């Protein structure tokens, strides 16, 4: 990893110089509240000015260790020099020309790379979007177009986005759907991750209310993201593949959060040696620039010109960033995700020994979570939120997911020293927090 990690001017561990939030941060939070949508879900008052690697500096000069990566987006770390150089060079040449109507090399190059890396026997056809929600919207359309069928199966706990089609697939939280119906028809949700759930699909739904002959696709996250970083039972994804093959429908794998090396493989579904029909990507694909992608087996992506398009998707600057990101990932960052993920989980297992309120860790690579539990062993979201807040005041940035989980999704260039610093901060936070219970 030495060739990937470069000298950084920001400290590589927390360095707090003011009480939190500092005066400049307080001012900007108040200005923000006056003019921005209340739908944003800010947890703690972090006002970011700058990032390098796994470090974030706020507007008052405080430095934090970032284990969020901007919600699993900055895969190569903040402002990775190779990615920044690619962005700057491309921005000086061409900012936009719309890949829907014209051609340019960064988009072709990226599509070639993704087609080569896709786990399909004959490569892939690629459609570029701006986000995960857009990728999932497009995949939904493509599945219905390619099969001529309308019914879709999705999963409770899933998060696929907040636009109407993607939101109709989402089954994560009531607040994401409340007040926005009616939703896209033809979507059935079942529990995630177990063979019992697939038994229910096959032996109950298929025989009563969901004719399998009308099923276009099953849309699944190989590891459920916002639902809690949940890893499915062994054989779950392979069985979905078998069901889809048997009923001539498509397996659509949402790799928006789990893809681009986060789990130690470029695509998380590769851990189970399962070949989907369509893969959706976003988040880590361009290290922070807005870009998403739909990868499909070539024989499926046959929709005609004008049937699906985008103005900004595949923007040349975003594609240049993605090409550089792929280089960094394949040159060592994906392997590093495996090694550092094992180190993180080992440390979290040790932390759970003195703190029975902490569950055993789960996940793959640097997609890891632990739950915070109450005295009876049940989920405790308020305790989880307090732990994340406490970590912020110690200089560690974390996010929640699921019912009461803390998620760990640092940049894939995180190193062993930074893992150890994060564990030490968590130890101090838990000691303070649990002493009051």
From TrEMBL:
Matching SUPFAM superfamilies: PLP-dependent transferases (SSF53383)
Keyword Transferase: yes
Keywords tagged on the record: Aminotransferase, Pyridoxal phosphate, Transferase
Source domain of life: Bacteria
Family note: Belongs to the class-III pyridoxal-phosphate-dependent aminotransferase family.
Cofactor(s) named in the record: pyridoxal 5'-phosphate
GO molecular function, one term: transaminase activity
The protein, known as: Acetyl ornithine aminotransferase family protein
């Amino acid at each position: 990893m030495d060739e990937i990690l470069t000298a950084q001017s920001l400290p590589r561990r927390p360095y707090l110089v003011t009480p939190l939030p500092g005066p400049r941060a307080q001012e900007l939070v108040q200005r923000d509240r006056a003019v921005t949508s209340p739908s944003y879900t800010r947890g703690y008052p972090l006002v970011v000015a700058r990032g390098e690697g796994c470090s974030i500096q706020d507007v008052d000069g405080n430095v934090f260790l970032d284990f969020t990566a901007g919600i699993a987006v900055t895969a190569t770390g903040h402002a990775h020099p190779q990615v920044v150089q690619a962005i700057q060079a491309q921005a000086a040449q061409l900012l936009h020309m719309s890949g829907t109507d014209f051609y340019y090399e960064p988009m072709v190059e990226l599509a070639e790379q993704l087609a080569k890396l896709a786990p399909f026997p004959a490569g892939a056809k690629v459609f570029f979007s701006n986000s995960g929600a857009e990728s999932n919207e497009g995949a939904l359309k493509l599945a219905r177009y390619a099969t001529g069928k309308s019914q879709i199966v999705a999963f409770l706990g899933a998060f696929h986005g907040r636009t109407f089609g993607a939101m109709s697939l989402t089954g994560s939280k009531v607040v994401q759907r409340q007040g926005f119906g009616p939703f896209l028809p033809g979507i059935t949700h079942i529990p995630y991750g177990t063979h019992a759930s697939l038994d229910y699909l096959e032996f109950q739904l298929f025989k009563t209310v969901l004719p399998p002959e009308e099923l276009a696709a099953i849309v699944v996250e190989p590891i459920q993201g916002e639902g809690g970083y949940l890893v499915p039972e062994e054989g779950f994804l392979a069985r979905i593949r078998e069901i889809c093959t048997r009923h001539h429908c498509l397996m659509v794998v949402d790799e928006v959060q789990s893809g681009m090396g986060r789990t130690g493989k470029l695509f998380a579904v590769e851990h189970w040696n399962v070949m989907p029909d369509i893969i959706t990507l976003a988040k880590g694909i361009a290290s922070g620039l807005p870009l998403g992608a739909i990868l499909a087996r070539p024989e499926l992506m046959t929709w005609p010109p004008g049937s699906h398009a985008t103005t900004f998707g595949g923007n040349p600057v975003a594609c240049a960033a993605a090409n550089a990101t792929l280089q960094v990932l394949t040159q060592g960052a994906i392997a590093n995700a495996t090694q550092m993920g094992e180190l993180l989980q080992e440390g979290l297992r040790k932390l759970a020994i003195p703190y029975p309120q902490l569950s055993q860790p789960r996940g793959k690579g640097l997609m890891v979570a632990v739950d915070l539990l109450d005295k009876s062993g049940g989920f405790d979201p308020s305790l989880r939120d307090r732990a994340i807040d406490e970590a912020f005041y110690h200089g560690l940035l974390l996010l929640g997911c699921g019912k009461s989980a803390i998620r760990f999704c640092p940049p894939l260039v995180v190193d062993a020293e930074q893992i150890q610093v994060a564990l030490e901060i968590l130890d101090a936070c838990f000691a303070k927090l649990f002493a009051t219970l």
